[in-house]
Amino acid sequence: QSVLTQPPSVSAAPGQKVTISCSGSSSNIENNYVSWYQQLPGSAPKLLIYDNDERPSGIPDRFSASKSGTSATLDITGLQTGDEADYYCGTWDNRLRTVFGGGTKLTVL
Amino acid sequence: QVQLQESGPGLVKPSEALSLTCSVAGDSINRGGSFWNWIRQHPGRGLEWIGNIYIDGRSDYNPSLKSRVIISLDTSQNQVSLRLSSVTAADTAVYYCAREKSRRAEAGTVRRWFDSWGQGTLVTVSS
After folding, report:
1. pLDDT tens digits, one per residue of A63-93
2. Pick from A44, A51, A91: which is nearest to B119 by CB?
3. Confidence class of residue B109 from pLDDT cuts 50, 70 and 90?
């Protein structure tokens, strides 16, 4: 059971928008920065978002994120079939150190 | 462009120690500024942070694994190593090496992220 709670799955049609939530607490998300990772099938995770809402170079602006209080969200607009992947949030927990969400499987219908 | 490559035995017997090496190319672990991490993923499951180490020798571990884990650096080979002792079937997982970056943050706030990952290596614990 993960310290950070994500929905197990989300789905949407190509071209649509999807939102993935990441819920934590005052000991993790509320007082630390959040990052997001994309894991394509059979591949290693890849950094998608850091510093709550910053995109590394090469990540399209279809991917955006925000943080408010004890929760963070990842938005993906203009969905493409190539976006089908598992998505993980991550942050620091004052007791447990680095923690990840349980992951959300995105299906593009 | 930094590249990380994990290597080590794919099969380990129960009660023995698991040892993996991460070879780093495109960055020097001597340079500082990065934490070097091990993260694992049980089959079909999410990510679990194992621990990390900094060039000055400071290491930090997942409390649930701390008693069994040692992470070390070999600066001459530019490698990061993981040793996990007394393994059981529950340690069967894909093990990733990852570079972690950080920025100065407000007091009491941690601002870190994993910007580069190795491809991962599957380790099976079985007799």
Report:
1. 999 999 999 999 999 999 999 999 999 999 9
2. A44
3. confident
State the Cα–Cα distance between residues B87 and B124, nearest whole angstrom.
10
Residue A17: HSE in the Cβ half-sphere, 13 Å Cα cutoff: 10
Q: Which residue of B has its CA nearest to A35?
A: B113
The residue to which tokens 């649930």 are assigned: B64
Rg of chain B's alpha carbons, rounded to an integer? 14
Q: Please judge whether A102 and B117 are an interchain contact, meaning their C-beta atoms are less than 8 angstroms apart.
A: no
Q: How far is A14 from chain B (nearest CA, A)?
A: 25
**Strand ranges across the sheet with A71-76:** A18-23, A71-76, A63-68
Q: pLDDT tier at B30 (50, 70, 90 boundaries)?
A: confident
Phi and psi (nearest 5°) for A30? -60, -35
Rounded distance, CA B24 to CA B2, Å? 7
Q: Is A91 helix (H, G, I), strand (E, B) or coil?
A: strand
Q: Which of A88, A92, A100 sits opposite B110 (nearest CB)?
A: A92
Contacts by residues A80-83 (CB-CB < 8 Å, ≥ 24 positions apart):
A80/A14, A80/A108, A81/A14, A81/A108, A83/A108
Residues of A in contact with B119 (CB under 8 A): 43-44
Give the whole-angstrom CA distance, residue A64 versus residue A54.
8
